[in-house]
């Protein structure tokens, strides 16, 4: 008797292609429309009340296929930047610099466990805010687990050190090229504008994540049975503390080469931020910076030309899925534009949002992005898919474009730590051997604080007319 195949959620790329087909069908149903626009400073803004119906240009099956190609062409520079970032991180990981840094911290017996958690999570948060520790964070979770168990805690604590640390920064990243770095150009805003506010948001979000991490550490110290790694019948020794040979792997020596490599990473992040804010850098310069980091780190740590090349290409390969998501997401925008129904959809959506007012409308945008991220868990993919809709709606309703970008960033970011469609999250939980349902229940209070922070932030920023310029 044949077993019935279980239903599987399509991959993100498959879902995006399906959405492209749906959008193509809509071009045959939804009336084509257009707005008149005007130049306001450096922004091309739609003029409220100027929507009008125009001749339809529906997209057929061949047009869908061509839209896929056009989506990739349109996002080619971003795709290469994403892949080069992955390549640089892979070389850095291979050098052993991060492992050595964590091992050095763990070997300091005088360091309080809560202080160690603060240092590790802060390091990961800065890397996450710069977009460096996003998908690559999965490779670092085992190091976090080794650190946590060597201190007498469970594997989930190690997950919190690394994953929650990284995403406390990534979710509100002030220099995240794959989220606001994609959203800002679509909104016709300087890349990484609004830097100071987002740094403050990073600090607040980090404090929230750190508080819940330390609270968990104290809880399982007091009652180990409350560990998310505990299963009925287990003894405390089965899930708390290091076991056997795993303790040896944390005693990595920190050489001067490792130190220079880590300083190189910090310098690369600083160069990208300064270049973007002061000199209007785009994806080309960012990709070049990551390339220099990879080459310098590889050669410095004795990988040689061939070894560096191999690791760099392997790192790029790991980012292929993320790169393809961006291409398919851009394909959606291509179809909506070619079918000339984008403005019609914007007009329909702007009617209920305008009745809410700009402050409530900004919060509604956050909720919408929070839900959309279930289908499009990629930050860059979601930015490419939703920002072309959000920008004109923001103009029509009176929401500043910077606030619209922040609503997207909050919605995409915080749900990255919840939805089972987020491959990075599920991979990290699998390594930590924690069931998603148990984790989701634990996460709810933390997520509630983040959502409250989002509502408060968007309300204040829209009320003061924040432009980030």
From TrEMBL:
Q: How does it sit in the membrane?
A: Multi-pass membrane protein
Provide the protein's localization. Cell membrane
- Pfam families (UniProt xref): DcuC (PF03606)
Show the InterPro entries listed in the entry: C4_dicarb_anaerob_car-like, DASS-Related_Transporters
Q: What keyword terms does UniProt attach to this protein? A: Cell membrane, Membrane, Transmembrane, Transmembrane helix
The primary site where this protein sits is membrane
What are the transmembrane regions? 12-30, 72-92, 113-134, 140-163, 170-187, 199-217, 260-281, 287-307, 319-336, 348-372, 442-464
Protein name as catalogued: YfcC family protein
Species name: Enterocloster hominis
